[in-house]
Backbone:
């Protein structure tokens, strides 16, 4: 009862905070869009609603305004005696305070995802952080490089969605990570600028030079699986839901803005839509509405300079706000940050109470852990039911491996309803950096047609009584990436139901699961084993019962390199990505689970054939597992 009373109290406090923030917004009347109203003599921060009403000049001289992630405040740059400085104000423009730092370039101001820090460039182009709470400055010890041969970048660096690292081009132009916790530097060996992450954190879009022209590319978060979007363009801006990519193409009088739809793997869907607008490239020239349906943009308005407009993502519904200005920034949806402070099963500071509170608040929620914990559960956790999404970040130190263990070995064993680890029934949830082990049922369940756009990343799911991950009942467009899924009694990942489609499984390691690594069950396929290939891949079922690729030859080239040739029989084979896996020993099913990822992003020819060169020291009897990415688009 004490835990229940505490949970109710926490929910009431959180609701009071949210209502208080909304009341503040009503009293101070912050508007939808923050922008720079520029005149011949000065730049002033202003706000306006998306319908053109409520124009408010905030009497703040400055530029490069940036909303905080929860929309409760904004930062902007002001001119100092010898360099730029950062100021922060509440959402309505009140309570202004300067942070007393020296900023080098105006295009490099970004909030951390948790709203605690602002990242910026010093006058010597070093990456640094300043605490919004107390103004403490931390140098990250790295310098940002510039490659202006393909245009000046709109952003010089970007945060990973979990807030653990920054991605930037180094002095050689290589995209490089720096981890915030210990300043570890990890180069990706990808030349490019302007990286921007998908909200799941599983991949990013960036600009690279091809024949001296800017081209848009996609790569997985670790730099692998590089593939072109076949779009000549630059200045990419992803929508909050990750489904739409805004970019520019052309230059000068031919500069135009376009929107390209993406699937949950980063592949294009259809052709780009021309917005028939000429953007003004002053800083971040546009931003998305929180619902990903509209774009606010500064566009050319003849001799009057830039004009703020709002347009739908499909190019319809153009609204000219009749104000001159630059860098329009749409106010994000408010979100709540919760911290798990202990490893208790229940009570104050526990994960259980954080989930209870997160489900009760009508806002997106991010749950983090104060330190690495092993949480031994005594009863099932509440399912994730917040329709706005919950992100559970268990990678405490940001090194890409799990730091928080959820142990279900203490849960009651019931044959009728064995307890699962985490159950997800709503869209836009993220589970990152958790170990889920020893649950009587499944490690994770993604259930129902409303469970779309969820991500399970960098998790270990092991020793569970049923499947590692179960996706069922129409759950679609979900991603399981870079997870280790092992020693589960059932399948590693099991996808059930003919309407469970386009679930992406990539770069995962499957080991010693009781059945298959990946099992598609439903439609014209039963649960008895490997889904057989069919001519033309016309069968229907979960993930459209995607045919697997056949390996036709694997030839040892010496020096630990193997040339692999194969074919896949599927409609539009050039839209399919092949991944190769290796196993230490042949699997009894003749289909290896996929113990170790070897090669990703193998392109397929129009006739379905493909070739890959794999480096991995073969020649000791190990087989190449036959695993594709499990999607048909």
Residues:
């Amino acid at each position: 009862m004490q835990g229940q009373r505490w949970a109710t109290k926490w929910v009431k406090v959180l609701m009071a905070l949210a209502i208080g923030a909304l009341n503040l917004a009503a009293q101070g009347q912050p508007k939808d869009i923050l922008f720079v109203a520029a005149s011949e003599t000065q730049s002033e921060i202003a706000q306006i609603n998306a319908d053109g009403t409520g124009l408010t000049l905030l009497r703040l001289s400055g530029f490069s305004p940036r909303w905080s992630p929860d929309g409760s405040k904004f930062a902007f740059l002001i001119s100092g005696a010898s360099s730029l400085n950062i100021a922060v104000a509440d959402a309505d423009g009140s309570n202004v305070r300067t942070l007393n730092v020296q900023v080098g370039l105006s295009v490099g101001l970004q909030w951390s995802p948790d709203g605690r820090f602002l990242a910026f460039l010093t006058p010597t182009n070093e990456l640094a952080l300043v605490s919004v709470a107390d103004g403490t400055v931390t140098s990250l010890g790295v310098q940002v490089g510039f490659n202006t041969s393909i245009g000046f970048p709109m952003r010089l660096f970007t945060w990973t969605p979990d807030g653990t690292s920054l991605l930037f081009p180094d002095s050689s132009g290589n995209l490089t990570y720096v981890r915030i916790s210990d300043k570890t530097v990890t180069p990706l060996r990808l030349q490019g600028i302007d990286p921007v992450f998908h909200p799941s954190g599983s991949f990013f879009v960036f600009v690279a030079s091809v024949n001296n022209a800017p081209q848009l590319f996609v790569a997985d978060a670790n730099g692998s699986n590089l593939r072109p979007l076949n779009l000549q363009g630059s200045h990419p801006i992803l929508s909050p839901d990750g489904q739409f990519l805004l970019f520019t193409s052309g230059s000068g009088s031919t500069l135009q803005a376009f929107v390209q739809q993406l699937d949950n793997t980063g592949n294009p869907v259809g052709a780009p839509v021309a917005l028939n607008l000429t953007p003004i490239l002053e800083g971040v020239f546009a931003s998305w509405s929180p619902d990903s349906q509209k774009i606010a943009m500064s566009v050319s308005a003849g001799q009057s300079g830039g004009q703020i407009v709002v347009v739908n993502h499909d190019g319809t519904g153009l609204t000219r706000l009749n104000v001159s200005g630059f860098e329009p920034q749409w106010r994000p949806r408010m979100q709540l940050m919760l911290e798990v402070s202990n490893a208790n099963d229940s009570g104050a500071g526990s994960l259980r109470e954080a989930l209870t509170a997160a489900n009760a608040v009508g806002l997106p929620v991010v749950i983090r852990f104060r330190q690495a914990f092993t949480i031994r559960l005594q009863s099932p956790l509440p399912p994730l039911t917040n329709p706005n999404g919950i992100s559970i970040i268990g990678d405490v130190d940001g090194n890409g491996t799990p730091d928080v263990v959820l142990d279900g070995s203490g849960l009651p064993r019931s044959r009728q309803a064995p307890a699962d680890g985490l159950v997800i029934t709503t869209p836009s949830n993220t589970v990152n950096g958790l170990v889920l082990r020893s649950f009587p049922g499944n490690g994770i369940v993604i259930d129902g047609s409303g469970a779309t756009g969820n991500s399970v990343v960098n998790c270990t799911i092991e020793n569970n009584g049923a499947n590692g991950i179960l996706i069922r009942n129409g759950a679609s467009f979900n991603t399981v990436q870079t997870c280790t899924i092992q020693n589960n009694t059932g399948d590693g990942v099991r996808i059930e139901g003919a309407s469970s489609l386009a679930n992406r499984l990539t770069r995962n390691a499957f080991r010693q699961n009781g059945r298959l690594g990946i099992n598609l069950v439903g439609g014209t396929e039963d649960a008895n084993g490997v889904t057989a290939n069919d001519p033309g891949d016309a069968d229907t079922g979960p993930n459209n019962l995607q045919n697997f690729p056949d390996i036709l030859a694997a030839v040892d080239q010496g020096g630990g390199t193997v040339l692999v040739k194969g074919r896949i029989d599927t409609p539009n084979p050039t839209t399919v990505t092949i991944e190769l896996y290796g196993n230490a020993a042949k699997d009894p099913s003749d289909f290896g689970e996929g113990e170790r990822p070897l090669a990703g992003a193998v392109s397929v020819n129009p006739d379905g054939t493909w070739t890959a060169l794999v480096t991995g020291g073969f020649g000791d009897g190990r087989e190449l597992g036959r695993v594709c990415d499990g999607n048909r688009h």
The first strand starts at residue 33 and ends at 38. Residues 144-274 form a domain with the Neuraminidase fold (CATH 2.120.10.30).
